[in-house]
Every structure is written in C-alpha cells, then in structure tokens.
Design a protein that fits this description.
Blueprint (H helix, E strand, L loop, with lengths): L1 E4 L14 H9 L3 E5 L10 H6 L3 E3 L2 H7 L2 E3 L17 E4 L7 H10 L2 E4 L14 H18 L21 E5 L3 H13 L2 E6 L2 H10 L4 E5 L2 H10 L2 E4 L25 E4 L20 E4 L2 E4 L9 H30 L1 H4 L2 E4 L2 E2 L2 H7 L6 H4 L1
Parallel strand pairs: 1-2, 1-4, 2-3, 4-5, 5-6, 7-8, 7-10, 8-9, 10-11, 11-13
Antiparallel strand pairs: 6-14, 12-13, 14-15
Helix pairs in contact: 5-6, 5-9
Length: about 375
C-alpha cells in the first residue's frame, strides 16, 4: 500500500504521524511511504532520517495526499485539507468527530474511509491509541494549571505545594480515567491537596488504593462537584465518553461559586469539554478569563512536548496501521473487532454510534457494510 505522511498544520502542532523507525517497518512490510518535506522537524526527525528508512520525500502536502492510498496523521484534518478528500482513500488519525460537524460532513460527502485512533478498542479492552496522549495530557494539565495560577497570568497567585506555615493549593480532578490518574500523579507529587471525582466506584477504590492517604475520592454527584469546585484552586476536566460528546459537569452559572483567579484546565475539549464555558484554544493563545476564572482549553496539549508525544503515539498506533496497510480497512476490521470500533466513516456512512448520536446522523453498523 502507498502510505502518505503529511506535515501537521494545526496551530503549534509539532507532532508527526510516523517516526523514521515506523517508516522502516512499513517499508519492510512491502509498503511505499511518501513523506512531506519537513514533516518530522518539529519532533526532531529530519528528512534524511526518513529517506534512510526508505521513504520518498515529496515537496508538498498536495503531492502526499494525491499519491497515497492511506494517510497517517496525528490531528484531525482542518478545513484547508478537505480538498484532498476522495473516495477510496483511507485516513488514519485522531478525529473526535462528535465535536466536529464540518469535518464529519466533509468525510461523509467524500465517501472516504476514516479510522479514528481514539475509538479503537484493545484486545484486553481500553483505548490503546488514546492512552499515551491521555497520560501526557493528564500530566501536562497540572503543570500548565500551576503556571496559570501565577498572578502574572491572571491566576490567584497560589503555589500548589504551599510552604511551611501556608496552606497547600487545592486540585480537583473531574474523572478518574487515564487523564485523571496521570493528573493525580503530578498533583500529588507537587504536594497539593487533591480530590478526584468519578461515577465509577471501582475506579475510585483503585485510586484510593494507589494513593493511600494522599487524595480524597468522591462520587461525582452534582452536589459533590459544586462543593469541590468551590474550594478548588485548579480544576482539571478529565471526563471521557469514547467517541461521544462529553457531559457538562460544570455549568456556566457554577463559575460564580469558584474563587476569583482559579484555573480550569479542560482536557476533554476535543470532545466538547466537560465545562460548559469551554471552547478550544491554541498554544499561541491558550487561556481566556470568564467570570474571573482562567480557562486553559488547548485542544492539542501534547503537541507542546512533540518528541515525547510522537514516540509514545507511534508505539501505540503502529501495529494497527501495519494491519490496515497489509489487509486493507475492510479485511483488517473484520479480523479485529476492536479495530472495527475505530471505523468512524465508510462509503458515505457514519459507522460509529457516538458520532451519529451527537450529530443527529443515521448510524450504520459497519459489520453490515464490510
């Protein structure tokens, strides 16, 4: 199969869909790989390394998209890339379609096949292609939140760790999954007071076990959410319903309960956010202040640590990508029910139920199409 690797063009997105080592694996499996010149520079991978791995370097994105049968990316295509969509092309990347109606419409109208990293289910369960970015985003959430708590950025001027004789900062984490667990690790490591809320009692028990006497766990009732955010210096939004729009746990009117200068880092922004006032921001302009609360809602947080993120992402996505290249989307999805869960659009049909529900589209079971 002919594999295309275009350069990421979303604001301050420095990751790349394949490392030179991954390209070598594709080439050794009998595939051709076309790489847009400069695609890997943001992650520290020059063209020469891709050439040494067996790739052909092409001068621009149009050439890569036109010559490929499968496009491997990191982030969802943006509007200027829709022109490259065509029937018969396979797109393999993060998509987050439930929160992106224009992209979904463009994919359906083109008839192309799209497989979303974030909805692929592993053989032992879980979301293996989403997990590494969730780990990074969770760790970054507290790091960024701590920075924007500084008075110079509009925050309360609170040091999460406190100092002897001065109280520590309060971190509230909404959701105890991969993002929440990794946010918890960093917040505990910083010495903050940490509260984690979730609706999964088993998950709360697990977190209570691995962070004994270091955190408070609460069932995420509406009352507990409101009481917690009222005491918070930093709130991390870490809720995920795979492939679906995130429920709004914090409403606009709830902001008046929060301390002036408190910070919200909504990692769930890709799926619409778990805070009603969330809207996507960029690394160029990462925060906005509403009702006295600082909101950090960057939709591609791991792009700021591009080399680490690229390596972690490719480790997870490569096995599925090689299967797609070797067998084609139809056969690969038939052979692996978890990969079938990653199929979001096929031949003009919406094939993921969460996307169909969020955007009021007809859902078609992919098994009936393949």
């Amino acid at each position: 199969m002919k594999i295309g690797l275009p350069k990421e063009i979303k604001n301050n997105e420095f990751r790349v869909g394949l490392t030179p080592g991954a390209v070598s694996n594709y080439v050794q499996a009998g595939n051709e790989v076309f790489v847009e010149t400069g695609a890997g520079l943001g992650s520290g991978f020059p063209d020469a390394e891709y050439e040494a791995a067996g790739a052909k370097i092409l001068p621009d994105a149009a050439s890569v998209w036109a010559g490929a049968e499968m496009i491997v990316k990191v982030k969802e295509p943006i509007e200027c890339e829709y022109q490259y969509f065509r029937k018969g092309l396979l797109l393999y990347t993060y998509l987050h379609l439930a929160a992106d109606e224009p992209l979904t419409k463009a994919l359906l109208e083109s008839g192309m096949t799209s497989v979303a990293y974030e909805t692929i289910v592993g053989r032992q369960g879980g979301l293996p292609c989403l997990a590494p970015m969730s780990e990074i985003a969770g760790r970054m959430a507290v790091q960024e939140g701590a920075k924007y708590l500084e008075k110079t950025f509009g925050g309360r001027g609170v040091l999460l760790a406190g100092v002897p004789g001065v109280e520590k900062g309060n971190v509230v984490i909404l959701g105890g999954g991969n993002v929440g667990t990794n946010a918890c690790k960093i917040a505990v490591g910083m010495g903050a007071n940490v509260t984690v809320l979730d609706v999964n009692g088993a998950r709360l028990a697990y977190l209570d076990d691995i962070f004994p006497r270091q955190i408070t766990t609460l069932y995420a009732t509406r009352d507990n959410v409101l009481k917690s955010i009222a005491q918070a210096d930093l709130v991390v939004g870490a809720v995920l319903l795979p492939g679906r729009t995130t429920p709004k746990l914090v409403k606009k009117e709830d902001l008046k309960l929060m301390k002036p200068g408190a910070v919200i880092v909504d990692v769930a922004v890709d799926q619409g956010g778990c805070v009603e006032t969330t809207h996507a921001t960029t690394h160029d302009d990462p925060v906005f202040i509403l009702d006295g609360v600082v909101h950090y809602c960057v939709a591609n947080m791991p792009g700021a640590v591009a080399r680490t993120s690229t390596q972690a992402l490719v480790n997870a996505t490569l096995p599925y990508g090689l299967a797609l290249a070797a067998q084609g989307a139809e056969a690969a999805c038939k052979a692996d029910p978890g990969l079938m869960q990653g199929l979001n659009t096929y031949d003009g049909k919406c094939t993921f139920p969460g996307v169909a529900e969020a955007l009021n589209l007809e859902y078609v079971d992919p098994a009936t199409l393949l």
